[in-house]
Amino acid sequence: MRRTNSGFSLIELLVVIAILGFLAATLTIAAAGLKQRSNIEKTAALVRRIDAGVEAYFTKFHDYPSDYAKLTAADKKAAKVWPTIKSDKYLYDYLGKPLTVTEGFVATGSKIKNLEPFCEMNASEILGPDSGPHTVQVLDAWRGPIWYELPGYAHGTNFPDRSKGEVSSTDSKFDLTSAGPDKVCDSFLDKLLPDDDVTNWTYDRK
Fold first, then answer.
1. What is the pLDDT of residues 19-49, one digit of tens each?
2. Which residues pair with 151 in a beta bridge?
3. CA separation for the pair 197, 190 (Å, rounded)
4. Using an 8 Å Cβ cutoff, are 178 and 200 in contact?
5. CB-based burial label for 99 (10 Å; 0-12, 13-18, 19+)
6. CA-CA distance, 124 to 134, in Å (whole number)?
7. How does DSSP classify residue 94?
8. In 3-state terms, what secondary structure has residue 10?
9. pLDDT tens digits, residue range 156-183?
10. CB-based contact 181:142 (threshold 8 Å)
11. pLDDT (0 to 100) of residue 108
């Protein structure tokens, strides 16, 4: 009596392996796409938070965050050119930690006031020792820095404000830029076509 061989043939095994390999590759690509989308959404949310924090800072102090905003009105008027800021280490100092400000005039009794951070940032969103001015970076979901530019180039020129005279940090708004997964930005083309960058001028601010 002959026995029936119930095992798989070599061709059948190869077909099964090929199908499993295809499914694994498809799932890997899908997972990578989902991860990428998640990183984009996280970074976009962070950029929006920072954008709102910068605007809240402006509402409080009538200047966008900068060391030069600390100048007196006379010093600002005397300045010939308002310095340009392009930094990945500005945002935390002004938005991510409490600020101590002096309100009122010394002659009439000024007072020290502690302000809450204008933008909450968790530990995974910052990098660097808080050991002095401009030492901490704010990071996107790819662990790259968020860049802050003042005056803004990409969308800032549509928002002129001469309320403080010819020289002011409010002459135009600001740019926030995450270089995205490739961590490459700073080119003129990126300003026109951000591609995979995450910015504060690629959504409606009006």
1. 888 777 777 776 666 788 889 899 999 999 9
2. none
3. 8
4. no
5. middle
6. 18
7. I
8. helix
9. 444 444 444 444 444 557 889 898 887 7
10. yes
11. 58
Number of neighbouring beta carbons within 10 Å of residue 192: 9
Quote the DSSP letter at residue 81. Answer: S
Pairing label, strands 99-103, 85-87: unpaired
User: What residues contact 29, with CB distance under 8 A and at least 6 apart?
Assistant: none
Nearest to 175 by CA among 116, 56, 99, 88: 88
What's the one-letter identity of residue 32?
A
- Tell me, rounded to whole angstroms, the distance of Cα 82 from its chain centroid: 23
- The residue among 72, 62, 46, 75 whose CA lies nearest residue 148 is 46
Q: Tell me the two tokens of residue 35.
A: 């991860």
Query: Could you tell me which residues come within 8 angstroms of residue 128 by beta carbon, excluding any fewer than 6 positions away?
Result: 89, 135, 136, 137
Q: What is the pTM of this model?
A: 0.70
* Tokens standing for residue 204: 């409606």
Hey, what are 193's tokens? 């076509």
Q: pLDDT tens for residues 49-106?
A: 999 999 899 888 878 888 776 666 666 666 655 667 888 888 999 999 888 877 655 5
CA-nearest of 149, 169, 176, 204 to 161 is 169
- Going by C-alpha positions, the residue among 82, 49, 51 that lies closest to residue 67 is 82
